[in-house]
Amino acid sequence: MKTNKRGLLIGFVVLFALLMAGFFATGGSHIVIDGDEVTGVGGIAGLFIGLLAAFIGVVVALSVTGIVLASVALVVVVVLVAVLGSFALAAVPFLIPFLIIYALYCLFRTKPRTA
Predict the structure, then answer these.
(1) Residue 20's domain spans which residues?
(2) Do 23 and 47 sit in the same domain of this protein?
(3) Are both 58 and 28 inside the same structural domain?
């Protein structure tokens, strides 16, 4: 294990040890649902299940938001390509004199001949 990973792991262990010491020092959780106090393992499990449900909800909401933003960006790119393509097609008649001059240049240029 590298030194920076070891230090990070030690930091997490110390943080969780402090959290557990603080949890046991407060005498457990104090959760009240409908006027009844929920204590013990059921209260802790309910708290963690609620936190897990909230985390999953946030992840799903951010995922859907990201997908919507990506599809909107794709639509904007398609519209931009269509607009620029229409401008390019509208500019083709203005290029005809330059194409005629280039064609005459290619017709009358001399190629060096190698033996």
Answers:
(1) 1-38
(2) no
(3) no
Q: What is the pTM of this model?
A: 0.47
**Does residue 21 share a domain with residue 74?**
no
pLDDT tens by residue, 92-101: 889 889 999 9
Count other C-beta atoms under 10 Å from residue 60's C-beta.
10
**In whole angstroms, what is the distance from residue 98 CA to residue 23 CA?**
81
If one counts the domains in the chain, the total is: 2
pLDDT score of 86: 95
68 DSSP assignment: H
Torsion of CA 96, 99, 101, 104, to 10 degrees: -130
Q: pLDDT tens digits, residue range 46-85?
A: 778 888 999 999 999 999 999 999 999 999 999 999 999 9
